[in-house]
């Protein structure tokens, strides 16, 4: 091999270098998903372009801005991606032009058609995107958009964003969202209660007494526990320790020490539950198996459900667990011992992955779907203990009892949510926005809120009395206000400048919403499920499930 | 309709009308800085100074949106200002391509701003700006991000805590012998390659002092002696690097010295290997011929792994298609070839001399990173430590913190909002340009339409509770034991070439005594940073000028009370402004000098120096050892500390792989007793001291 070529092949290309800092968060698989995505953003507002900026920079595949408006002087003042010279030109075209400067590898399209006519004439177009984001869309149009997207079970998720001044909210409409790598803290089982043959052999063959003090102090606690459990069973008719015997079991481990300060044995004692707890399929994962999309596969099934189906079959056979994780936790040990243990786990994990893959191939053939790439199988198996399926709901299908519950737990957020809803309801009813500072319009908006509340069955007396439980400051706001005060404060705040798309609020929303978009597109991390309310006066946020 | 009418409606006419003339300093034009300068301009700020010493790198472009590919290697501050000005020509933007720690940015300079916004990526610069702002009395909005996490903290002398009120963990250091002789984890090999071998071959030679310090701290004397010999041999190979042509000869010579002879020499110290696995000298020729095999004792336990991860011969291995190029596992032979090629590039750069006589390690310098990857892996191989990919080495060697646009966008939005709140509360109190200390946690009901006081708050972006993305809590009063913001600052304008230390100290103490209505002056010791300048029974320096003592513009001279009855006084030295000649006087003090307040009783004593010749721990450092319990003793609300702890905890648990950094830190001190992966994660977190930082270190 030529030395020069070796050197070059280790050095990352400019693509990797550009995305280095984010690849360390969502890895190449996440990046690939981003680069294949197509995002539709409705309106070229300051908030919309802020969101897009944060999607163009990390490198989504392509985006479209749908906006028939022309740039006003105000737009040019609060939207960084418009120029003074843009005034009077198409808002979509101008902002696409400036956004594209951020990243050569992203494609952008300006669509100046009228959304209403698209909704009527070619709704299919909307479903061709990976994700749709709508900012401050008028109520009636938004209702139509959301129901069209909801109407198709495989249609793209919709992020609805509303903002006025320092107040904002957003929610995500999706039927079901599957997550392979949820990046949660859930720890897989290492099966110390039921060691696989190679691990058991290693633990039993090791002559603890023959080791010198240094090596003895470096036996990984995994090995100690497997050995201790084996010895216990030998002495107790093949039975594992019961809960009430744990103390004796720990004492037995303690007696294995050669020296008082052997930390690996101390660690074995603190981790004793790993040997005691029976490894089973976690209930959250088992629950996923009964999902209809998992049970009934057909040629349209997604790889996630095809693999989930195969996983279900895998767990029905010996040893009735999920495939073993190849990744070890932090263990007190020396490098040599650690690497050996890691080798045992890797070998076993590879064998189980091979078995899983074999089952999967049968499932794939039976269902008539495309084969799953091995890198995707790797990711699935590696994360199979933390798979997630989120159930979503249609936008604006508020449920009254949930609303009452939310008022009790998150009065500040519900107050802001209702005020923002009233703003858009006002526009829908009067075909205009409230006038800034108008007492009359404020009263109309308040009436709408009152009507909404009484329809939900809320009255002053129904306030849940504080039972002394600690309420989160974020949920109530820094000041202790009543729900009524929250509502009127938020409404008052909105009426000051009902259509203000503030640059600072837009910048912050741009960050939040792009982050949710990235979660949805990469299917990594858990997105917000509910209405996330943001109040930048008190710098608080909260999510309400309504 | 005017362009900024929305802002006006929301901020109110009074605050809004002040913004164009509010002088703002933004320190840092990186990930947060780019967003911040955009937001500040759009919000209506009209006079912004933007300072950054860094130049643009390709890896910045995934979030630092004011830069384009064509701008790579240009100064960040200049390009950022140019891009923003194109959009908003009406804003006065002053870019400075410079280091905030330079003496010209002294207290006088900081006093020239109404508010300072930090957008920094490292602890050192943050602490510096914090101290300058405390000395100048200028409000500071401090911020930081790491991956999905971030925080914003409004800081103002006497009104809130300062950045140093809560001690920050200091970066981890390793014993010299662990790095040089007995590595047991990948990080040890990387530190050796980056901080020892690389400077030995390409950088400044400052090894002697290192070993002196190690000897002084009681490390193995014989071993240190050996290391001295090893170092002197480096002078020879280094010379060969520059003279020998072709470089292949030098490459082979260096390899043999470092990976064969030095290891053989270490093996002769049999004591060292009594309770450790001894290393194996590497044989370059047989590795290249594919014939080298490591002794079974070293490699046998990892055989299962070796078959999968690194076969030592022909370098053919499969890796999945989603893996990136530099995430490829390197064989032993790959590493030798990488060593050769990177050494060759670096040697020719050294010979050309375009970058000066020495090279410094930079994680974005491909040759340097290749070299550190190859040499740390070769060392790992010799010691039976798991070798890493180039990608992993980069993360550890460069202390890389993941960074994304979204987090920076959220945080920079919050910075502007907190800045507005701070300025607003200033207007609400007295309308002065400088805000007066506001009552922390001021709770004023929000009244429609705009009478409410906007109280500044600490805000953090938390990944741990997806349902509550933002957390916030009110500002916290200063920590009574803080050695930065509890010092009494006196702004001294002077001509450092003319004024002597004695004259100045004398004037301050006299003014202080007369303010107390007394004749006698207290006894003090005088420090500059960690240098003792004078003590009650050692006054030789008092006759020397400040310039002579290296205490000119930008420095702080600290007066420490001998009896430790009152707190420290810090003299912030700046030159007299051209517009205010001193009229003959070599210095000018403020008219209102107050005696420093009493020192809180239970503070740890700052130890007086034993010998004036020896460098001692600075008074600053001695006082920083605040225990958590102190917060109760001195009345700092305990809950604030608790909240902070919680925040930090979240940071670590959310940083990609769920690791509890506190726990890992303890483990890493045990040394070698953790998995390579976990050690690496802990190390990465630890090197940044859990401080949330943005992006690559540039300062």
UniProtKB/TrEMBL annotation, chain A:
| Keyword Cell cycle (UniProt) | no
Cite a single GO BP annotation.
Answer: protein neddylation
Q: Which InterPro entries match?
A: APP-BP1, ThiF/MoeB/HesA, ThiF_NAD_FAD-bd, Ubiquitin-activating_enz
Q: State which pathway it belongs to.
A: Protein modification; protein neddylation
Note the Gene3D superfamilies from the entry. NAD(P)-binding Rossmann-like Domain
Q: Which GO terms describe its molecular function?
A: NEDD8 activating enzyme activity
- GO CC annotation, single: cytoplasm
Domain spans labelled THIF-type NAD/FAD binding fold: 19-133
Record key words, sorted: Ubl conjugation pathway
Functional summary from the UniProt entry: Regulatory subunit of the dimeric UBA3-ULA1 E1 enzyme.
State the similarity comment.
Belongs to the ubiquitin-activating E1 family. ULA1 subfamily.
Question: What's the name of the protein?
Answer: NEDD8-activating enzyme E1 regulatory subunit
Please name the source species: Hydnum rufescens UP504
Q: Tell me the classification of the organism that encodes this protein.
A: Eukaryota, Fungi, Dikarya, Basidiomycota, Agaricomycotina
TrEMBL record, chain B:
- Limits of the THIF-type NAD/FAD binding fold domain: 10-424
Q: Where is the Ubiquitin-activating enzyme SCCH domain?
A: 314-394
Mark out the compositionally biased spans (Polar residues): 309-321
Q: In which pathway does it act?
A: Protein modification; protein sumoylation
Q: Where is the active site?
A: 177 (glycyl thioester intermediate)
This entry's Gene Ontology molecular function terms read: ATP binding; metal ion binding; SUMO activating enzyme activity
To which species is this protein native? Hydnum rufescens UP504
- Which GO BP terms sit in this record? protein sumoylation
Segments of this protein annotated with the region Disordered: 305-326
This protein is called: Ubiquitin-activating enzyme E1-like
> Which family is this protein grouped under?
Belongs to the ubiquitin-activating E1 family.
Q: What GO cellular component entries does it have?
A: cytoplasm; SUMO activating enzyme complex
Q: Which residues cross the membrane?
A: none
């Amino acid at each position: 091999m030529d030395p020069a070529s070796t050197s070059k092949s280790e050095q990352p290309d400019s693509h990797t270098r550009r995305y280095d800092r984010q690849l360390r968060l969502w890895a190449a698989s996440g990046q690939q998903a981003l680069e294949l995505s197509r995002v539709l953003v409705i309106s070229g507002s300051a908030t919309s372009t802020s969101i897009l900026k944060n999607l163009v920079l990390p490198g989504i595949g392509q985006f479209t801005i749908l906006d028939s408006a022309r740039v006003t002087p105000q737009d040019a003042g609060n939207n960084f991606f418009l120029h003074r010279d843009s005034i009077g030109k198409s808002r979509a075209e101008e902002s696409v032009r400036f956004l594209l400067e951020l990243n050569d590898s992203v494609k952008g399209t300006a669509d100046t058609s009228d959304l209403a006519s698209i909704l009527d004439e070619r709704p299919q177009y909307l479903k061709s995107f990976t994700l749709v984001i709508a900012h401050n869309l008028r109520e009636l149009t938004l209702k139509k958009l959301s129901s069209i997207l909801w109407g198709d079970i495989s249609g793209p998720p919709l992020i609805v964003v509303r903002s006025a001044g320092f107040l904002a909210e957003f929610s995500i409409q999706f039927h079901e969202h599957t997550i392979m790598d949820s990046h949660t803290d859930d720890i897989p089982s290492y099966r110390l209660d039921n060691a696989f043959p190679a691990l058991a052999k290693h633990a039993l063959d090791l002559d603890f007494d023959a080791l010198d003090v240094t090596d003895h102090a470096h036996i990984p606690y995994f090995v100690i526990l497997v050995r201790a459990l084996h010895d216990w069973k030998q002495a107790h008719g093949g039975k594992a320790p019961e809960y009430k015997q744990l103390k004796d079991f720990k004492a037995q481990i303690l007696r294995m020490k050669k020296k008082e300060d052997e930390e690996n044995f101390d660690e074995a004692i603190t981790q004793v539950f790993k040997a005691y707890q029976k490894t089973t399929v976690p209930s959250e994962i088992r629950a996923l198996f009964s999902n209809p999309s998992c049970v009934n596969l057909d040629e349209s099934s997604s790889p996630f459900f095809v693999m989930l189906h195969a996983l279900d079959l895998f767990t029905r056979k010996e040893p009735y667990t999920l495939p073993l994780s190849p990744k070890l936790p932090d263990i007190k040990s020396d490098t040599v011992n650690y690497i050996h243990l890691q080798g045992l786990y890797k070998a076993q994990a590879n064998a189980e992955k091979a078995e899983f893959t074999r089952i999967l191939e049968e499932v794939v053939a039976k269902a008539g779907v495309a084969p799953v790439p091995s890198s995707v199988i790797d990711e699935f198996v590696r994360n199979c203990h933390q798979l997630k399926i989120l159930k979503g709901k249609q936008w604006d299908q508020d449920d009254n009892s949930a609303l009452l519950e939310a008022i009790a737990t998150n009065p500040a957020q519900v107050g802001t949510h209702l005020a923002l809803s009233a703003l858009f309801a006002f526009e829908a009813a009067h075909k205009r926005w409230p006038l800034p500072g108008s007492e009359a319009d404020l009263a109309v908006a308040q009436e709408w809120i009152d009507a909404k509340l009484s329809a939900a069955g809320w009255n002053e007396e129904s306030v849940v009395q504080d039972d002394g439980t600690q309420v989160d400051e974020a949920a109530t706001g820094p000041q202790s206000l009543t729900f009524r005060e929250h509502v009127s404060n938020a409404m008052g705040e909105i009426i000051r400048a009902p259509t203000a798309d503030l640059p600072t609020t837009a910048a912050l929303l741009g960050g939040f919403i792009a982050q949710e978009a990235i979660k949805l597109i990469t299917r990594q991390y858990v997105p917000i499920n509910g209405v996330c309310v943001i109040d930048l006066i008190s710098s608080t946020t909260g999510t309400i499930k309504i | 309709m005017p362009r900024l009418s929305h802002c006006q409606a929301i901020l109110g006419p009074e605050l809004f009308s002040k913004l164009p003339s509010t002088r703002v300093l933004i320190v840092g034009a990186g990930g947060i800085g780019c967003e911040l300068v955009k937001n500040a301009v759009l919000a209506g700020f009209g006079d912004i100074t933007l300072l950054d010493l860094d130049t643009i790198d390709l890896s910045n472009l995934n979030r630092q949106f004011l830069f384009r590919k064509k701008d790579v290697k240009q100064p960040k501050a200049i390009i950022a200002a140019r891009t923003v000005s194109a959009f908003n020509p009406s804003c006065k933007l002053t870019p400075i391509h410079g280091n905030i720690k330079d003496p010209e940015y002294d207290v006088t300079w900081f006093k020239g701003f109404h508010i300072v916004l930090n957008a920094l990526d490292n602890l050192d610069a943050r602490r510096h700006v914090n101290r300058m702002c405390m000395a100048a009395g200028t409000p500071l909005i401090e911020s930081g991000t790491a991956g999905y996490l971030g925080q914003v903290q409004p800081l103002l002398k006497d009104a809130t805590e300062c950045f140093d009120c809560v001690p920050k963990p200091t970066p981890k250091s390793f014993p010299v012998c662990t790095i040089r002789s007995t590595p047991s984890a990948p990080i040890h090999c990387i530190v050796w390659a980056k901080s020892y071998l690389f400077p030995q071959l390409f950088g400044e030679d400052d090894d002697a002092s290192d070993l002196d310090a190690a000897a002084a701290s009681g490390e193995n004397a014989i071993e240190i002696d050996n290391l001295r010999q090893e170092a002197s041999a480096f002078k020879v190979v280094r010379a060969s690097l520059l003279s020998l042509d072709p470089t292949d000869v030098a490459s082979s010579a260096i390899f043999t010295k470092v990976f064969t002879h030095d290891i053989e020499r270490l093996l002769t110290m049999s004591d060292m290997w009594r309770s450790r696995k001894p290393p194996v000298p590497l044989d370059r020729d047989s590795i290249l011929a594919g014939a080298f095999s490591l002794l079974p004792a070293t490699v046998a336990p990892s055989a299962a792994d070796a078959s999968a991860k690194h076969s030592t011969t022909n370098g053919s291995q499969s890796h999945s298609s989603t893996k990136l190029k530099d995430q490829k596992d390197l064989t032993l032979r790959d590493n030798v070839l990488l060593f050769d090629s990177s050494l060759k590039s670096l040697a020719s750069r050294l010979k050309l001399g375009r970058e000066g006589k020495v090279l410094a390690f930079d994680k974005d310098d491909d040759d340097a990173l290749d070299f550190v990857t190859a040499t740390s892996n070769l060392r790992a191989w010799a010691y039976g430590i798991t070798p890493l990919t180039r990608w992993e080495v980069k993360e550890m060697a460069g202390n890389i913190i993941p960074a994304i646009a979204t987090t920076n966008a959220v945080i920079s939005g919050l910075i502007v909002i907190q800045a507005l709140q701070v300025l607003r509360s200033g207007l609400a109190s007295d309308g002065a340009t400088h805000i007066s200390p506001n009552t922390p946690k001021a709770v004023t009901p929000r009244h429609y339409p705009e009478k409410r006081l906007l109280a500044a708050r600490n805000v953090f972006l938390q990944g741990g509770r997806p349902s509550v993305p933002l957390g916030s809590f009110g500002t916290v009063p200063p920590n009574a034991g803080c050695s930065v913001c509890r010092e009494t600052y006196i702004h001294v304008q002077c001509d450092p070439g003319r004024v002597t230390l004695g004259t100045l100290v004398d004037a301050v103490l006299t003014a202080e005594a007369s303010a107390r209505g007394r004749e006698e002056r207290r006894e003090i010791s005088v420090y500059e940073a960690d240098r003792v300048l004078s003590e009650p029974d050692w006054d030789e320096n008092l006759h020397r000028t400040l310039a002579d003592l290296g205490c000119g513009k930008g420095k702080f001279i600290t007066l420490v009370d001998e009896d430790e009855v009152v707190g420290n006084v810090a003299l912030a030295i700046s030159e007299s402004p051209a517009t205010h000649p001193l009229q003959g006087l070599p210095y000018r003090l403020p008219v209102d000098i107050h005696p420093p307040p009493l020192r809180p009783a239970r503070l740890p004593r700052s130890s007086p120096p034993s010998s004036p010749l020896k460098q001692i721990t600075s008074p600053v450092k001695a006082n920083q050892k605040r225990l958590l319990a102190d917060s109760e003793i001195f009345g700092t609300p305990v809950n604030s500390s608790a909240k902070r702890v919680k925040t930090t905890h979240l940071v670590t648990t959310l940083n990609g792989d769920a690791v509890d950094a506190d726990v890992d830190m303890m483990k890493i001190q045990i040394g070698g007793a953790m998995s390579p992966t976990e050690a690496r994660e802990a190390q990465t977190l630890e090197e940044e001291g859990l401080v949330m930082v943005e992006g690559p270190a540039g300062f």
